[in-house]
Structure formats: structure tokens, C-alpha cells
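FW: tagging you since you asked about this chain on Friday. Here's the raw sequence from the shared folder, copied in full. Didn't touch anything.
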Amino acid sequence: MHAMTLRSLSRTLTAYGQLMRFDRPVGTWLLLWPVLWALWIAGVGHPPPQVFIIFVLGVVVMRAAGCVINDFADRDIDPQVKRTRERPLASRRISPYEAMALFGVLICIAFWLVTRLDPFTIKLSVVGALLTVSYPLMKRFFPLPQFYLGLSFGGWGIPMAFAATLGTIPRVGWVLFIAAVLWAMVYDTVYAMVDREDDLKIGVKSSAILFADMDRLLIGAMQLMMLFALHLAGRSMHFGAWYRAGLAAAALFFLYQQWLIRNREPAACMRAFLNNNYVGMAIFIGILLDYTFGH
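HL: got it, structure written out here
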């Protein structure tokens, strides 16, 4: 009896972990890299330790909360999509009530974390929370939900990081924000290419559907715009060769992604999506090395 209880508890905890995507950490990294760029630039290479810890934990918690509310909203859609039909809510391993209770706990943790910061950052966090909660509804009617994802998950941590560190959001913060929104549109459009056929059947909106056969061209245009925005940010901060090397490495990863998606095969598109983790990492390493050796 005791062994059965332990097995049941283990299965439940595993399902909760899958609901929060703890088994797929790449998504957390994609949200964390832009925050790290902002923290290092705002802190001139030395972000305040408390702010750093709060933001790292906040990204983990809010990404988990975003996944839970997304799966709750999609609980009747996910069973119709090959990639998502085994998710805990879609496969009925977790009830909607359990999911909403978990979401409530995560939001409370996130709120407690942000109350450790200043009032301006707290106000910005409310906007971020509203964007996060409303995102799952966008793909029902908005033809470009990837843009909304960029505003909420992809980029909003950047102005918050500057606000928490400096008490204000300088121009470079908004340039980084634009770069992060463009990047989220890049990787989430590639991600949407994986599900395009299923999404067309069930009527879900996505940039991959909107862009149609111009998807690779428009992804390439957004990749170039993102790199240009980061170039402008670096120039305003007087960054040198280390930062430029990071951007060059990111550009090479983007070229590799273009090669992967050339035939629009779902498995290759998924590999291109995952490769974006290295884009964010390369940019952060460039910033880190520039502050370490270039200043």
C-alpha cells in the first residue's frame, strides 16, 4: 500500500513538472538570456546580487506559470495536435482545477519575489503579468500571436531589469526590448512551423500560417533586424570586439537555422527552434567578456 502511494505521488509530481515544462528547460533559457543581457548592461558588468537572484527565480516561476495557463487554455485543443496530445492536461492526467491551483501558487511566488523590489518595478510586473495571462487567448483571433509572446514572455523582463537596477529605463533598454521581441518572433515562428498542418486543421492562428511560403524570408528579415538592434545597443554602450564576436556567433547560428528550415520539415524546424538557446548564450557571453576584458 505504501509503495503504491509513493508511485502515485511520483506520477503526480512528474505530471506537475511536465505541466510547468521543467522537463524542457530550453524555454526557460530563451526567456532568461534577454534578462541576463539587461542585468549585465544595467549593472555595468556587476548586477546587484539580490536583483540577479530575484530575476532568475522570477523567470523560472513565470515561465512555469505561463506554461500552466497556456495548457489550461488549450486543454481541448492540445489533444488534436500530435506534438501536444500527451501533455498532462490534454491527456487528463491532471484536472483543470489542479492546474489552476498550481497557477495560483506560482503567481503568488512571483508576486512575493517582485515585492522585494522597488515600486516602479512592481508596477511594470503587473503589466507583465497581464500580458502573460492574456497571451493564450491571442492565438484564437490574433493572426500574429508570436508578436504578443515577444511582448510578454520574450521581452518584458528587460525594462523590468533596468528599472530594478537603475530606477529608470534608458534608451538602450528599449532597444534591447525591441531586439528581444524580434528574437521571440523568430524562434516562435520556427516553433509554429512544426505544428502548421495541425494548426490549419483546428483553426489556431500563428505567424507560420500568416507568413505562408514567405516564412523563411520573413524569419531571415527579423533575424537581421534583431542583430541590427543589438548592434545599435552595443554601439551606444561603446562595446568592442568581444561583443561584436558574440553577435557574429549569433549570426552564424541564425544561418544554421535557415539551413535547417530550408525544407520546412517539422523535426528540422524543432532543431532550429532549440538552436536559439545558443544565440542568446553567444550574445550574453559577448557582453560578459566585453565587461571583463574590454572595459
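FW: The mean pLDDT is 91.
HL: agreed, and The chain has one domain: 15-294.
FW: great, closing this out.
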